[in-house]
Structures are given as C-alpha cells and as structure tokens.
Amino acid sequence: MSESIFLPPVRSLDTFEAECSVLAGVLLNSAMLELVDDILTPEAFTSEAVGELYRIARDRVRAGRPCDPITIRSEAETNPKTAEFWKASGPKILTAFVGKPVMRGYAHAIADAALLRSLKDEAENLILDVTHAGDKTGAVLVEELQERIERLALTGDTDRPMKTSANAIDMLLEATEASWKAGNALSGIDTGYEGLNGLLSGLKPGGVYVIAARPGVGKSSLMLGLAMRAAQTSGRGLIWSGEMSAEELMSKAIAGKTGLPVDVVMTGHWKFPNGERRPVSREEMDRIVAAGMAARDIPMMVDDREGATVQQILTRARRMKRQKQGLAFIALDYLQLMEASAAVKRSGNRTAEVTEISRDVARMARELNVPVIALSQLNRQSENREDRRPSLADIRDSGAIEQDARCVMALYREEMALRLRVGADGQVSRNSGESDAAYEKRAAEVTERLAKSAGTAEVIVLKNRGGRTGIVGMQFDGPSTWFRGDDERRSSAAW
C-alpha cells in the first residue's frame, strides 16, 4: 500500500485569485494601499504580471499621483511584463475585488505563500548542496543555510504589532512603579558595580553595551566581573569567548576570588623570576578548590568556539531563552573575532564585515530582549596622543559599533599607558633633543603619576543613550587581573 494515502493533501501555494482581488481593491480606491503596503512586495505575487501591476499602482499612490485603471493603462500596455495580461484581463480585473474587510487577510495569505515557496526552494537547494557540496563541510553548509533562513525570517516578519504611545506609557509606568515599590533605583540588570550602576542605571534589556580597550588592558576581566556579578543577582548568562577557552576564562574568575595570580591558579605552582617553580601550599590549594566550587553555582554558559557567527550565538541563545532557567544577558569577547556571513566575507572588506556583525548583535539584543555586553578592540590612535585616554573615534574597524550600541565604555589604565614611556632599564625614556632640565622635570612627573595610578583603572562612559556620561573609578589587581569598584575594599569578595 502506498504511504502517500497517509499524507495530508498537497498544499497549494498559488494565490492568484487573492492577488487579483488586492490589485483590484487598490485600483478602485488608492487609499486601500495602506491596508497592505506594510505586508506585500511585488515579488510576493505568484503572477509576475499582477505583481508588476501592483508595483505600478503602489508607486503611483506613494508619489501622490492618480491611480486607477485609466491612469495606469498606458504604462500597463507598454510594460513587457504586463502588456499581454492587461490586454487579455485588464478590463475584467476589477471584478476580482471582493471587499475591503478581507484585503489585509488576503495580503497575509499572499505573503505567507511567498515565504513557503522560498522555504521550498531552500529545501530543494539544500538537497543539491548536500549531494554536490564539493569540498564544503557540513558545518559550512549549516552556516550558509542559517544565513538564508535568517534572511527569510526577517522578510517574513510582517505582522509584528506596533505599540500606541498609550501602550508604551502604560508599560513604562508599570515598570517604574514596580521599581519604586521595590526600592530599586535600577531600570535594568544590576552590574554589580555601584559606580557603573550610578551612571547606567543597570544594563537595560535589548541594549548593546560595548566595552572597548587596547589589548592587555583587561577588558575580558572586566566583562567577566560584570557577568559573574550579574548572574548571581539576575539569572543565567551566556558568554562567547573567541580568544580564551572556557577553562582559561574561569581561571580568571577563580584568581579574582582567591587573589592569586592567574598562572598560579592554572598550574598550581608559583613561578619565580629565576625560573624556579614551587607548588602552592595546601592552604592555597584549598582556596582555589573552594573558589572553584563556588563558581560552579553561578548560572553561566560559556561558548568558546573560535570564529563563531552572530547567527550561531543567536541559535544557542534562543534555546536557552526557551528553557526553564531562561537567559538574562549575553557577553561577547570580542566583536572583531566574530565571523561575518559568507557573502560579506567574500567581499574582502573588513569594515563591511564588522558593520554586519555589529548590526546583527544589535538585532539579537532586541529580539531576545536581553542586554548584550560586547567587547571591542581600540585602534592605535590613542597611543599616539599625549593624553592616551580613548575616544569614540578610536574604536577599531567600524563606526557602526558606536552607532548600534546603547552605551560605549572605554577601559583605561593610566599606569599601563605611562609604562610605555619607561625603558627596559626602568628609566623614563628620553625624547629626542630634550634638554636635561626638561627631561628631569618630565621624568619626575611621570614617576609621580605612576605611583598615584598604580592599581587603578577608569571606565570612561563615552556614550550612554538616555543617560549620563562620565568616568567611573575602579581598582585593578594586576596578578589576578580583577577589577573592583572604587567603593570596595581590596579584600572584598570578587563576586
């Protein structure tokens, strides 16, 4: 017996009659275009001729020109895509109109059928890709399919409801009153750092928070500090680390908790300048183990795949969001290590790649309605200035990062910047042609500033949409690479 009798009947993806009805409605009353204009494109029509006539009518209405069977006749008769259809069916097209109440429903049916046809085409293309993939791996095919499906998802999202100003105000007042009653001054996730909370009022859902710095300044450690503290108070987080393994990342958290250097936590040994190594004491090992056991209870997932795409992160984040534990935030370390889509990579334009990544990250934050902490490299421009504090213009590869972010923070350690002026002999480097008096004065100033800046850092809030900018002072412990707020004791808990 054929198995086909157990399958549902074949679904028709032909919406010709609905397309004719929609076109007739617009030609009878051009004001009806606003009922369907946000849903339909000419490409969604199964009939190329009807789709082209819809485009002609739409363009005339948008331009404020008359639109009816008489005014479009000349263009319809001379357009090669519509001439034959108009000659045969033009006079009869108006009889297809069945009423205004069904116009929007017909438009949705046409758009949905177009999306289903695109999915059918993708399924057929996938079979060809798999059977004739050449040297493409399965992972590459999955990535390419994800990109195409994501584009279809965006074009198929025609019915997302808008909010009236009244709806938005009701939601705002409800959230504000709830925060007021709870005595919570934050409107987003607690960063765990009082100084940052004071400027940012927490990390708001749907926003991208960029932390930018030069290599070695400690942006990964600051991100991890934010993530560990936020996960304790607000729920499970997802970290993508393109530079460190999950084990390396967690060694930083344990180092911060114990106050021990990161390399000691990872090896269980002290290393001395003369090359000698000594195992940690029993008490130190107990501290490492205790910190590790405490870290096990922090609700955190770490994705340490190299060169992940935003789509790959989004796929995992969606799954986490659906699970019982949910998803409170995402952290990405760092944007310039992420992969753009295959199509953009083929262009060879690095700015275009980073721009796409930045835009996709912003869309991900909004779709999932969670804050995204995204790290970014700074270029070398800041190192060439007398005042090495970074600016928005120093963000590497793309201005889109600044545009797409809700907040941009630059991490700056004056101690590290000043040490660039000190030579291998420990003396302040002398400028060319500098007199003895000028050198001695400058060297004394650098030495004094070095002493004052030791163990300190600044988070410079350069952009803060809807909030204040400013500088938040931090403490930085070099050996454990951990940040604490200015208001915290050096012996206070790291997380």
UniProtKB/TrEMBL annotation:
Keyword Isomerase appears in the UniProt entry: yes
Single annotated GO MF: helicase activity
Matches recorded under InterPro entries: DNA_heli_DnaB-like_N_sf, DNA_helicase_DnaB-like_C, DNA_helicase_DnaB-like_N, DNA_helicase_N/primase_C, P-loop_NTPase
Leading EC class: isomerase
SF4 helicase domain mapped to chain residues: 182-490
Alphabetic keyword roster: ATP-binding, DNA replication, DNA-binding, Helicase, Hydrolase, Isomerase, Nucleotide-binding, Primosome
Substrates-to-products reaction catalysed: ATP + H2O = ADP + phosphate + H(+)
EC number(s) per entry: 5.6.2.3
Listed Pfam families: DnaB, DnaB_C
Family named by the database record: Belongs to the helicase family. DnaB subfamily.
Protein name: DNA 5'-3' helicase
Protein species of origin: Asaia krungthepensis NRIC 0535
